[in-house]
Amino acid sequence: MKRDQLLERIKIDPHIMVGKPTIRGLRITVEQILEALAGGVTLDDILEDYPELEKEDLQAALLYASEVIAKEKVYAIQGG
To answer: 52 partner at 20 to 30 Å CA-CA among 17, 33, 66, 76?
Structure first.
């Protein structure tokens, strides 16, 4: 699946989960997916816990996060 197709799976709607990025408008946020992965939950376990999700949804969450971080400005702090 191409980059743009994956990113289309990420929806931001102020009426769903207070506007946090969600997977296909479901009440599952990109943040939830990332926290689960960071906590050691496997992709297969996430898909088992959330049967409404597809493998491409998890790829979309990771791609979205990488896009957000790529645009982040980092400022060096002098001294310390």
So the answer is: 66
- Specify the pLDDT at position 80: 58
The Cα–Cα gap between 59 and 6 comes to: 7
Amino acid in the structure at residue 14? P
Count the helix, strand and coil residues of the chain and give each as a percent rounded to the nearest 5: 50, 5, 40
- Out of 2.30.30.40, 1.25.40.10, 1.10.10.10, 1.10.150.20, which CATH number does the structure's domain 3-71 have? 1.10.10.10
Place of tokens 């049967």: 51
Task: Quick: pLDDT tens for 20-32.
Answer: 999 999 999 999 9
Instruction: Please compute Rg for the chain using Cα positions.
Output: 14
| Cβ contact 62:2 at 8 Å | no
